[in-house]
Amino acid sequence: MIDMKVYFVLLKNEKGQSILEYALLLIFIVGIVTTTLYTTQGGGVVYMSIKNAFGLIKKYFTF
Q1: Rg of the chain's alpha carbons, rounded to an integer?
Q2: What is the pLDDT of residue 43?
Q3: What single-letter DSSP state applies at residue 63?
Q4: Rounded to an integer, what distance in angstroms lies between the CA atom of residue 13 and that of residue 17?
Q5: Distance between CA 43 and CA 33 in Å, rounded?
Q6: Tens digit of each residue's pLDDT (9 = 90 or more) over 17-30
Q7: Cα–Cα distance between 6 and 21 in angstroms, integer?
Q8: Is 0.70 surpassed by the pTM of this model?
Q9: What percentage of the chain's residues is helix, strand, coil (to nearest 5)?
C-alpha cells in the first residue's frame, strides 16, 4: 500500500514534464522544416522560391 502512495505522489509532481514535451515536439518540428527547406534535393528550390517571393514583396511594397 505504501508503494501506491509513493506512486501517486510522484505522478502528481510531474508538472514540468508537459512543458518539456511541448519543447521537444517544437524542436522536432523545427528540425524537420529546416531540413526540408535547406536540403539541396528539392528543398533548396522551396527555400529559394520563398526568398524570391519575399524579395519581390520587399521590392514593390516598401513602406
Answers
A1: 23
A2: 61
A3: -
A4: 9
A5: 10
A6: 677 788 889 999 99
A7: 23
A8: no
A9: 85, 0, 15
